Amino acid sequence: MDTPILRNNFKSEEYQINMGPQHPATHGVLRLLLTIDGEIIKKVEPDLGYIHRSIEKMCERDSYQQIVHLTDRMDYLSSHINNEAVCLTVENALQLEVPERVKVIRTIIAELTRIASHTLWWGVMGMDVGALTTYFYGFRDRELINDIFEETCGARLTMNYNIPGGLMFDIHPNFVNRTKEFIAHFKTKLPEYDLLLSGNIIFQKRMQGIGILSKEDAISYGASGPVGRASGYSCDVRIHHPYSNYDNVKFNEILKTEGDTLARYQVRILEMWESLSIIEQLIDNIPEGDFFAKTNVVIKLPAGEYYQKVETARGELGVYINSTGTKNPYRMKFRSPGFSNLSLLNHIAVGGKIGDLVATMATLDLVIPDIDR
Amino acid sequence: MNITKSIHEWLFSLMPEMTASIVEMVLIAVIYLAIFAVAGLYLVLLERKVAAWFQLRLGPNRVGYLGLLQTLADALKLVSKELTITEKADKFLYNLAPYFVIISALMALSLFPFTQEFQAFDINIGIFFLIAISSIGVIGILLAGWSSNNKFAMIGAMRSGVQTISYELSVGLSLLTMVLMTGSLQLSEIIEVQKHGWLIVQGHIPAFIAFCIFLIAGTAETNRAPFDLVEAESELGAGFHTEYSGMKFAYFFLAEFINMFIIAAIAATVFFGGYLSPFGITESIPLLGIFWFLAKTLVIIFLMMWFRWTFPRLRIDQLLILEWKYLLPLNLMNLILMAMMVLLGLTIQF
Amino acid sequence: MTYFKDIYYAIKSLLTGMSVTGKYFLNARKGAITQQYPENRATLKMFERFRGEVVMPHDENNEHRCTGCQKCELACPNGSIEIIWDRQVDPETGKKKKVIDQHIYHLGMCTMCSLCIEACPTDAIVWAQNFENSVYDRTTLTKVLNKPGSKLMPGVED
Q: Where does the record place the 4Fe-4S ferredoxin-type domain (chain C) (predicted)?
């Protein structure tokens, strides 16, 4: 029966399928062109540009105060850290010394942002692997952080709380109490995350050994943040190039060596504990003082190139400003963590099943406006 | 059941025997359709409420008192929606598929003894018939996925085929374990046996294992989470019913919930004594059998909902590993254990 | 034997997960975090710093504090603020002075960045805590902040 005609008839065929731009698992308008053989993924081609707003070009039009609010719209889940990155770059360029109070407040809010981003990620991660309840538990805890932000700076998502030189206004009198309440609340809820999802046998089997990224690949693809650290690549900007108040607090860099999706998941869960400890160290010791350093109304950076990187919830965000001495940057460029993390998706997802791709993508924690800008 | 008897006599006195029996059948069918619709709609509502309570939400509470009319409103909306179709779909199969699914679910419903007399169709191969009919539904899903001419639907349908064929084995074997004790496939007789203690008590350890396996396999057969690979909204969008809209989508949706009811009802009948009350406390009022039957069924449905709103989804290969490496060997061992127990007379009877 | 051990640990982990959701199910009555929005309008209070929309407060004499310095217009990144102004002779001093005719605010273009309010030297514009801004026609989102016939509060200088 082994005639060539018969074999040809039963030849399996690869086919292409569009995952996105409207797909529940891509969390936004990312289009993945998948080449699939049955359930097995042969190739993943990300197609970007569906939410491109040319933020970098708009920055060339705006003054340095105005640029800050555009960065809210890049990685909207860590908007405060994006703001901070731009402000730090401008302050460094001006060689402006910001008050201690600003540094501490910025650090606390940045860590709160990280927790907020990770709780949302945890909820969505659960949803992507089919446990819908996690979504609501994650959002419940994130809501408390959003309330803290709203009370202090008036917005829940696009904060625009930093200005070059400091903060827009002082923290709200309730800020410290609310943050302490949140820490107490979250310390009881975080173990529940582990009981509900991390320890679950189905979840563990789903996540173990898929989407493996080696340390070498992590470095060569430019992976950063939890994605890089899960592969053993020590890349925490907060430790290696401390900014704001990170050189005065003690915390561990979470490193795992497995490099699979479970490791990336665990890195984020443990990072929330570290963020909690950073906030706890600082919340009682906010120094008195001004909440901004005086700058000119029209900020003109001295001609030259400036670069500053910070650690957002997703990884390393770099801000590059090329100034010619005018009130606008000549060229502005953001090195966003999501873009380089997305670039390794094809590398780690090939050979897995469709379900693996969804789980892998969830642990990369992509925010599409951050990739497209 | 005096009312049914008098209706029966009245019908037969009114017209010739042939017409009368046809009219009677139609009446029964209409009654079952009504049960079907109401049960389906309120199970959807129950699912939404239970999900909300698990997820710190309130659930539907705007339409009607406590949201009791919510699903009716949804049904009205679905009826009034446009039925869309893809251009390159296989139109005949595309339209046929929802009926396949819904009719198989409806046929299975007719077998259950709600009380001693309230049973439409008491055949001597009851359980066998139930298993057979409940797995016909998968043909509808396969048809839907194939005829939609959509790759996502196609993947969903293929997964469904793999899943149902595998888990059919476990459902059958776990029920077979219990049949060893009853010695009959007829549902009314299975319940008769349980007057001396429910089968899960009579068969203790092996019966409990069989119940667990049945619950897992049953959840898988109804394509509910954590085994909802067929729909898997984060992977396939909506799976096999991606291209369906309006009432045709509603048929799939309702059938899923009716299938859940059927699996729970089988479990209640075979393991927990069906309409029998615990310790025979309400044996003098046979009509209360409906209450006991529904109560037991709802408890098992609640368990299935609990699973759905707690667990993440399995991957397709893990789904098969679970069946072929764990459930099936355990089931076969369990079957032998039960056979030995029946042989040695180790069952507990009151 | 690891086969049965695996099964034991698997079932244990599943039951732990179910106990977490089960606990929430039992406390569903008081645990619900849903806010029933249109019903709780009366009790729903936004924080005082909440950025709803930009408004210009007027006192009882229909006087505002806007001198027409246009600092907000310059600070706005999106051009949501336009000020139409004129020079008029001040009857007291006899000098020519900027007087606003219309302070136009395009809510539809506003990104709530708060830069205009920070820039305002006289606190003429502030945030309102109003959040129900949806309309049927986007032209209604273009608002004139100073009331008709209003004038500058005496004594406000930039």
A: 57-86, 101-130
Counting one residue from chain A and one from chain B, the pairs whose CB atoms sit within 8 A come to 78
The residue range of the domain holding A298 is 53-372
C91 within domain boundaries: yes
Query: Does residue C42 form part of some domain?
Result: no
**Residue in B closest to C7 by C-alpha:** B326
Residues C19, C63 within the same domain: no
Nearest Cα of chain C lies from the Cα of B171 at a distance, in angstroms, of: 19
3-state SS string over chain B?
CHHHHHHHHHHHHHCCHHHHHHHHHHHHHHHHHHHHHHHHHHHHHHHHHHHHHHCCCCCCCCCCHHHCCHHHHHHHHHHCCCCCCCCCCCHHHHHHHHHHHHHHHHHHHCCCCCCCCCCCCCCCCHHHHHHHHHCCHHHHHHHHHHHCCCHHHHHHHHHHHHHHHHHHHHHHHHHHHHHHHHCCCCHHHHHHHHHHCCHHHHCHHHHHHHHHHHHHHHHHHCCCCCCCCCCCHHHHCCHHHCCCCHHHHHHHHHHHHHHHHHHHHHHHHHHCCCCCCHHHCCCCCHHHHHHHHHHHHHHHHHHHHHHHCCCCCCCHHHHHHHHHHHHHHHHHHHHHHHHHHHHHCCCCCC
Closest CA to A88 of A107, A74, A73: A107
Q: What is the pTM of this model?
A: 0.87
State percent of chain B over pLDDT 70.
Answer: 97
Instruction: Answer yes or no: is pLDDT of B308 > 50.
Output: yes
On the question of pLDDT at B286 being above 80, the answer is: no
In this prediction, residue B343 has a pLDDT band, given cuts at 50, 70 and 90, of confident
Q: What is the CATH number of the domain that holds A62?
A: 1.10.645.10
Whether C19 maps to a domain, the answer reads: yes
Asked if residue C26 is part of any domain, the answer here is yes
Q: Name chain A contacts of C54, Cβ cutoff 8 Å.
A: none
The CA–CA distances, whole Å, from B254 to B37, B168, B220, C6 equal 8, 21, 17, 36
The answer to whether B269 and B116 have CB atoms below 8 angstroms apart is no
Q: What is the mean pLDDT of residues A147-151?
A: 89
pLDDT value, residue A171 = 85
Nearest to B158 by CA among B131, B138, B136, B137: B138
Residue A22 located in a structural domain: no
Kindly list the partner chains of chain C, i.e. chains with 3 or more CB atom pairs below 8 Å.
A, B
Q: For residues B96 and B103, what is the distance between their CA atoms, to the nearest angstrom?
A: 11
| pLDDT tier for residue A1 given thresholds of 50, 70 and 90 | very low
Structural domain span for residue C23: 2-33
Q: Given CB atoms, is C40 within the 8 Å cutoff of chain B?
A: no
Tens-place pLDDT, residues A72-100: 888 888 888 888 898 889 888 888 888 88
Other beta carbons less than 10 A from residue B170's beta carbon: 25
Given A15, A130, A356, which is nearest B313 (Cβ)? A130
Contacts of A208 (CB under 8 A, 6+ apart): A260, A261, A262
Contact assessment for residue A125 and residue A137, using Cβ atoms and an 8 Å cutoff: no
Please give the pLDDT value at position B7: 73
Q: Cβ contacts of residue A158 below 8 Å, gap of 6+?
A: A69, A72, A73, A76, A79, C111, C112, C113
Res. B255: pLDDT tops 50: yes
**Are C140 and C64 within one domain?**
yes
